[in-house]
Every structure is written in C-alpha cells, then in structure tokens.
Design a protein that fits this description.
Strand content of chain B: over 45%
Largest sheet of chain B: 6 strands, mixed
Number of strands of chain B: 11
Structural class of chain A: mainly beta
Helix content of chain A: under 10%
Order of helices and strands of chain A: EEEEEEEEEEE
Shape of chain A: globular
Largest sheet of chain A: 7 strands, mixed
Strand content of chain A: over 45%
Number of helices of chain B: 0
Oligomer: heterodimer
Helix content of chain B: under 10%
Number of helices of chain A: 0
Radius of gyration of chain B: 13 Å
Structural class of chain B: mainly beta
Chain lengths: ~120, ~110
Amino acid sequence: GAGVSQTPSNKVTEKGKYVELRCDPISGHTALYWYRQSLGQGPEFLIYFQGTGAADDSGLPNDRFFAVRPEGSVSTLKIQRTERGDSAVYLCASSLNGGAVANEQFFGPGTRLTVL
Amino acid sequence: AQRVTQPEKLLSVFKGAPVELKCNYSYSGSPELFWYVQYSRQRLQLLLRHISRESIKGFTADLNKGETSFHLKKPFAQEEDSAMYYCAADGATNKLIFGTGTLLAVQP
C-alpha cells in the first residue's frame, strides 16, 4: 500500500515569503508527526497530532510555524516570513495511533526547503 | 534534558568485519529505544526497537540501563549495510528524540 507522501519534494523560496508543506499519512493512521532535519543533524521533533488536534506542539521553534490537520488525515505545515535558518528537510511521519506504548512511526520522503 | 548521543559521525569497516554503532541516552524514566536506518535515496525506516528483542538483517541491540546505552551490533558487516543509522528514544511522549546519526560505510 501507499506510504506517507509529502509534497512538494523540493521548495525554494525567498526570505520573508510564506510556504506550505503538505503531508498525506498512511490511511487509517490517527497519529501524525512533523520533524525538521538540518544538515548533519538527526530529525528534530516539531509537532504531533492525534486526530485533528495538536497533542504536543512543544517543538515548534516560534510563532512563525503553524500546522493544521482539519479532517484528521492530511496535514499542512505553514511557515510565515521564512528565514534562511528555516532551510532544512521537513519530515512527516504517521503511526497507527498514539498512546503510552509507542507505535512505529512511518516516515515520508521529506520536503527539502531552501530559503534564499 | 532528554538527549540521545551518537559519538561517531562515520564508521568505516571492511566487509565481514564486526560492527558496533554506539548510542547513549540521557532520559528521566525508562524510555523506549529505537534504531532507524536510511539507505541511499530512501526514506527513514525503523530497523529495530528494544521491546521487540528481535534481530533484523543480522543486527541486534541490547539496552543497558546501567550504562544508559543501546549499541547496535552485527557480527559480519555486508556492503548493503552501508547507510545512515539513527538512534532514537521515546519517553512515552509520542515524540522521538534522535541522535545525530552515524554513517556506516562497509568497504568491499
């Protein structure tokens, strides 16, 4: 079956612009996660959705970053007034459900964001 | 602070040699530990997790709570094992904390 998909695969934008990154999770997965991976680093947690609600957004670096999942499936990560430091690969993952015993997270291919 | 440390950025071995990728963690409580792998041009995928106690592709990892380590081992490396390996932890918060990764290069 289809895995997690992310669009676009690459996004180049100019400093100060607004960008949206999309994630389509595996069908039936209620939990969805966003991570950011900078060059030479491991993925860094941004936000976790359980259904439509953000269960944990403690990793969002500042109020320029926002994410939604209005119908409990597709999610959009939104970045306002982009800065060069936002350049990174943005990874999305989904799991069957959240809960006390961590379910396997399945990752998408990522969106490479470059801010000029 | 919660932290996962992978001290080696690069590990280069010859085919057939033993491999040990190091991982140490700093966590309150008892986190669940994972190894993720990313092969060239592929997405990040789970290799193994400590609660499963499985051997996947010949790899094993033992959780040592005393040393707070979760090293990944394989007795005989294969060329197809060349990849980026990430150790990760989850303290029942549903967010993975990753190490910086180790690039394993298996030479023929």
